[in-house]
Structure of Nitrogen fixation protein NifZ:
Amino acid sequence: MMDLREPKFPWGLEVKATVDLYNDGSLPDIPEDMLLVVAGGPGEIVQVGHHSEANIPIYMVDFGVCVLGCLEEEIEPMRSAAPQEAAVA
């Protein structure tokens, strides 16, 4: 029995796409190869699954326009803005 590879990212994490994401045929009502999310598009991980044959985590990410299954290399955590310096009175 093989050990499951642990996911790098948790549920609820705000992420952004690292690459343009196209319909690979998994969304039947949308033309195949249509651009769905541009690189940098924001989303939130709503579920984490596992591809048993490849032993890799699959992330269901809600990008607002659709929910897509993504690999770790297709998403990254959203960088929070640097805290603003307090204004000097």
